[in-house]
Specification:
The structure is a homodimer. Chain A is of the alpha/beta class and about 500 residues long. Helices cover about 35% and strands about 20% of the residues of chain A. Chain A contains 15 helices and 21 strands. In chain A, the strands form 6 sheets. The first copy, chain A, has a 6-stranded mixed sheet with strand order 1-2-7-3-8-20, with helices on both faces. A 5-stranded mixed sheet of chain A has the order 13-15-11-17-16, with helices on one face. The radius of gyration of chain A is 24 Å and the shape is globular.
Chain lengths: ~500, ~500
């Protein structure tokens, strides 16, 4: 019986292989030959710190990516610099294919979220990429890259900031192009490359780039390689993303830290003030209580509703995997809650808790909020609603630390810093070229491709629509459990290789 | 006119000097000769880290203090070690005065609160003591100690962990004894010295010491040199202290940090859970809402009420100095609020806020609470009330990180760690020997001595009463703005010298 099962599985597997278009088979074969060279190249890129505010290292990342592109004979490789001096540039290049009628721009970003190295697991460092024989950061499972010719297990992972978000995206695009050409083929469209350098910092200068280089950036569609595939493990295509805007709020206690015995409960404690302020922002069912917060939401179209209904259900799997039983937003499925604007506490701090705690009244409490936006929301309006809510709780709101005079005038003071953000974007699900991308990716998807009207995550796609009137579609490649944005970020090798085939399929689509 | 004023001031000053008992004048003169030697000695002691859990350095502190005592011919200098191995010892010594009928034990502690060096001002380090020509930590005002013979301005301060809390207390006692003897005098009582090594860690082993050394620790009264003098700048004597007990609370979100876009508002955010939990602990008027929190408070006696009524009012001065206008506990004066049990947030943390913030859902949020207790409260009962309150908010309470099974069973989980603490203590205000101490200190107080039934701060005096049936009275010496327990802790030179005279006056009392 066992044997029969095995034979049957083997048959199925062969059928799958046979079902792949021959062009993609050639890409896979080439990739198998190149694995070691490519992984070494990837590790080299991951070793360069990539926070957008770190101009020196951003430049080093951009230079290395340009080298990689020139090595692959990509043309017109250059930096697209925004008008603002010293803001991170995008890396650009292009391939003109004789006879091609369509132009596709492939987007990824090479900058990453800020890192707190102290939070990474023992033996791991954000910019010391390591290969790990396991799913989680475990120093005992760090292994050397096997020598060329020895197999690299596809379940191994590479741990480093940017591994999945989004240097893996950059590399999958470059590797896909290389694999097509080196396997004796050519893309069926003109290919452009656009690698952004400040996506994780809010893409504050992206619009300057878009407005400055309209000729370079002409295309039929932008294909965005960023974010994770579906939690079910299936490939995913996404017609939109949520918008995003951050805010920092600081509230104030005494001007100097005080002994909690001599002053506690008489002098206002900023941690308690912050707790009350944050608690006022959501009700017991997890709905945001800020006035007007859900007012501007554009309803889903019938096609979007249908796509959501067709998505595999992963709620129970994710609850189990993430160790909780009751969602914050009671009565909503994961996908339903992602179709609403959100308010999330990214971090909260007041003096020290735990081992470093001292018996003090802290001087300040600080929180960073993350507002996600859906179609219909304007990020500045949402930020203003949060500010108005803070005022409605009796706070005097300023954008600086309060002066002695202000402290004498107002019982409750909040410093509110609004960061630049961007709105949500959704491409209509019936756009012909988008449908072609879907079909191309489906040929590499072993049966199941998940189609989503909007990702929970954010990308500045709204800006492409606004400033270039361009269409976008997101084709993520990373494993869902990649610790994106946090400590121990990682990408599974298999997802890199699947990503290469996905990007190649799009370049090869008729 | 100016000249007349000056002469008049000079006259007043001379009168004050003349009004001091001659024995104290001799002490002052001796101190003036010794200033440089003493400050060098103090700086040497402050340079040794002194967190109670740091056994190696605690031992170094104790050894140096014993050397200082032997140098002063104090007898029977030794460590009083608790039964528990490796717990911090107390340093002991004694002076038997021929014909003396009373025995006074002088208490101070040489351990300090935990330090977070990153929080100290630029150029300052907790265990690199510096002399500063100013009130606040300002690297530009760091000055070298002038050479012997040059004056040391009494408004200068020494910045270091333990400067005021409480190595300054240790030194003022040793210097007072030295000044009496070297100025050709003798104390009028037998003097015992007891310097504790784990006060800031909750005095967990103090009772073992008290029970193990009953003969050494026989006395008529313990004089406690710890804490600040009154905010008005006047000397202060205190008949009691509040009790103290800490708790750590951790609440749990997902098992790994998550991208806030892909999961925000569906996966429970522990920072929001913590905000709601803390917000539930106090009402809008700053009163603790935990059931039974104020139930066991022993009412103040008429003498205690009268003492409070006679205290200088500093509320407006302190609001101005600390930069706020509305107390947390609305309608209560500072002193009134200190006569109640309190609940203070010492620190609160969940992932990172501000510069290091990332767009994540944190995995945990943590808070450290500080419960102060007044006469009538039992610290374990108060801790249990907080725990019961957490349960009443729907939490499953455990004392470990939750298992996968627990996560599958309970929607809200809190880890609650209860630290050892101690109860409040109040010595009756009509105790004869306590009255004698008051009168002795009054002779050095230039007119105004503030008498307080209970300090806001805490000391394990309850244990002296419980295990030794001993009387205690607190005679603090530090400046009120000393940043005790926090970064940039400091002591004003003048307060050290006043402290020497205060301690000497008690040793010399008839």
């Amino acid at each position: 019986m066992k044997k029969l099962c095995f034979l049957f599985s083997l048959c199925l597997y062969s059928l799958q292989i046979l079902a792949q278009p021959p062009a993609i088979e050639k890409v896979r074969k080439l990739r198998q030959e190149k694995e070691h060279e490519w992984l070494n190249e990837f590790i080299q890129l991951l070793a360069i710190p990539n926070e957008a505010s770190d101009a020196y290292n951003i430049q080093r990342n951009a230079s290395l990516i340009m080298d990689m592109m020139r090595k692959r004979n990509i043309q017109d490789v250059k930096l697209l610099s925004p008008a603002t001096k010293d803001a991170p540039p995008a890396v650009y290049g292009e391939i003109k294919v004789p006879g091609a009628v369509k132009t596709i721009i492939f987007y990824a970003h090479y900058d990453g979220q800020p890192v707190d190295p102290t939070k990474w697991a023992k033996g791991f460092q954000p910019f010391t990429p390591v290969l790990v024989n396991g799913k989680t950061a475990d120093a005992e499972k760090i292994i050397p890259l096997p020598p060329a010719g020895s197999p690299v297990n596809e379940d191994w992972r590479i741990f480093a900031r940017g591994a999945s978000d989004d240097k893996g995206g950059v590399m999958s695009i470059l590797w896909a192009y290389e694999a097509i050409v080196k396997s004796g083929q050519l893309p069926n469209c003109n290919v452009k490359f656009f690698f952004e350098g400040e996506e994780e910092a809010g893409s504050g200068h992206l619009q300057e780039i878009l407005l400055k280089y309209p000729n370079e950036l002409k295309s039929d569609i932008w294909v965005i390689s960023d974010g994770p595939v579906h939690q079910s493990g299936n490939k995913l295509i996404c017609f939109g993303v949520r918008g995003d805007a951050n805010m920092d709020i600081t509230v104030y206690g005494p001007t100097r830290p005080l002994h909690s015995g001599h002053y506690g409960n008489w002098v206002p404690n900023p941690a308690l003030m912050m707790a009350k302020l944050l608690a006022s922002m959501k009700d017991e069912k997890g709905k945001v209580t800020i006035k007007g917060f859900y007012d501007d939401v554009t309803p889903l179209s019938p096609a979007e509703k249908a796509a959501i209904a067709n998505m595999p259900k992963v709620d129970e799997q994710m609850k189990n995997e993430l160790g909780f039983i009751k969602p914050e937003m009671d009565g909503y499925s994961l996908q339903e809650s992602l179709m609403l604007p959100s308010l999330n506490i990214n971090g909260m701090q007041s003096a020290n808790a735990g081992k470093l705690a001292a018996n003090v009244i802290p001087t300040i409490a600080m929180v960073t909020l993350d507002l996600r936006l859906v179609k219909g929301n304007d990020y500045e309006v949402q930020q203003q609603r949060v500010t108005d809510h803070i005022k409605a709780q009796g706070y005097y709101v300023t954008d600086k630390d309060p002066t002695a005079e202000e402290r004498k005038q107002y019982p409750k003071i909040a410093k509110v810093i609004k960061y630049d953000g961007y709105n949500a974007q959704r491409t209509p699900m019936d756009l012909p070229i988008a449908k072609e991308v879907v079909e191309a990716v489906r040929t590499t998807a072993n049966g199941t491709l998940v189609i989503v009207p909007s990702l929970g995550g954010s990308l500045p796609l709204y800006k492409f629509e606004k400033y270039l009137k361009a269409n976008t579609i997101s084709v993520p490649i990373a494993n869902h459990d990649n610790n994106q944005h946090a400590e121990n970020e990682n990408i599974r090798i298999k997802n890199l290789w699947n990503g290469v085939e996905t990007m190649a399929a799009i370049m090869l689509m008729k």
